[in-house]
Amino acid sequence: MTTTAINIHTGTAMPLNQANVDTDQIIPKQFLTAVTRTGYGKNLFHDWRYLDQHEQVPNPDFVLNKAQYQGASVLLTRENFGCGSSREHAPWSLDDYGFKVVVGTSFADIFYGNCINNQLLPVQLASEQMDQLFEIVENNAAAQITVNLQDQTVNVDDVSFTFDIAEQHKTNLLKGLDAIGQTLELEDKITAFENSLPEWQRA
Q1: In Å, how far from its chain's centre is CA 97?
Q2: Domain 8-177: which topology?
Q3: In the chain, what are the domain boundaries?
Q4: Relative to the CA of 68, which of 61, 149, 186, 195 has its CA 20 to 30 Å away?
């Protein structure tokens, strides 16, 4: 299946300056009630975002609720983001809220793979580089961050960083391919192989 491809993304950032953010903090288990990819953004970071879980009164101290970071499409975070249970709803909720890129020091392996499969670009930078990005964004919430997947760069103001990404992951994001889409790219070869089988082996 082909989804929306990503190459160059420019947007403002939200600084979630916290390590070891697990998937139950990203989207709590009580909201995992559907198999569609939409509708989860309103409950993103629910337990931090709201003072009252039932009335959903916004917590004014949580960064997602601060006026200067509304409309941000780049999430800045720290090490081990997305740890915990392997729920695909975590990248779904981030994307549904409006984030297209997550930049952090490191990511949990399963969460990272789920991001790739759902066209949410995970960018890993060194801790010192993240320190610079946090400082820039916290001093100027309107700062525009440009992430170029083709060139593997992150640019803001006069600061530029490069990042590593596996070639297969990069290709899939550039083409907008999820796991099904990757298989369908081989459809001709799969069909040729099936046709080469004896009649009794064909489905």
Answers
A1: 11
A2: Aconitase; domain 4 (3.20.19)
A3: 8-177
A4: 149
